[in-house]
């Protein structure tokens, strides 16, 4: 099944008399299991499109289906619930909770999903290990490097078993080597656990790791390349 399906999706901002078509009639399908990047210059609409797909913003026109469910018709409460169970978010600025340890930051998602405590460790520990964070589970974010914090954020995004992980410039605050490292780990999770990823990036080294490169310009898809 398609994980994401957008039809004539638009988001128009009104800046005084001027209209900005941040996302302009986009038809996009992301299949289950894809590892895709949104590329394109600053202002091309990458963040706006990710926010629409993730239900963080509502379209001016058009539709978004997420694993077959139409997001447009949902109330704010229903959208919050859909986000909790279907989408994992990774942000540029990590957004970890400072007073919680690495383990607790990941566990938080399972708690709000209502997963019994007895299952938490079995879900969290292998993931932290896979991401090279074993031994660091009791550290708070301030005691971790940027790359380590972002790997905790990846674990947090994936632990709830969402249908898709959306990441807006997840490597923007990392040095080039940590960025490539993080992407390779995300790619391995994509291959091993069949998690679908859609992320945005400016960094050509990061873009090159994606299996599909969707290029945006002025809110429209101008190129869509799948590698074999
Ligand atoms: N809240 C807003 N109000 C008005 N215009 C906005 C708003 N948010 C974004 N825009 C405009 O919409 C367009 C797309 O912005 P968007 O943030 O999606 O681009 P982007 O591709 O993510 O850029 P970057 O690479 O710099 O993050 C830009 O022209 C931007 O100025
Ligand atoms: Mg952006």
Structural class: alpha/beta
CATH class: Alpha Beta
Cofactors, ions and other ligands in the entry? adenosine-5'-triphosphate, magnesium ion
**Count of DSSP strands:** 10
- Based on the coordinates given, report the CATH architecture: 3-Layer(aba) Sandwich
Number of helices: 7
Task: Report the radius of gyration as a whole number of Å.
Answer: 17 Å
Number of domain modules: 1
Task: Give the helix proportion (percent range).
Answer: 25-40%
The major sheet is characterized as: 6 strands, mixed
CATH superfamily: P-loop containing nucleotide triphosphate hydrolases
User: Roughly how many Å apart are the termini?
Assistant: 20 Å
Looking at the structure, what is the overall shape? globular
Kindly report the CATH topology.
Answer: Rossmann fold
Poorly predicted ranges (pLDDT <50, ≥5 residues)? none
Task: Walk me through this protein's architecture.
The chain is an alpha/beta fold and 228 residues long. It has one domain: Rossmann fold (3-Layer(aba) Sandwich), CATH 3.40.50.300. 34% of the residues lie in helices and 30% in strands. It is built from 7 helices and 10 strands. The strands form 2 sheets. It has a 6-stranded mixed beta sheet with strand order 6-7-8-3-9-10, with helices on both faces. Bound molecules: adenosine-5'-triphosphate and magnesium ion (MG). The site of adenosine-5'-triphosphate has 12 residues, from β1, β2 and α1.
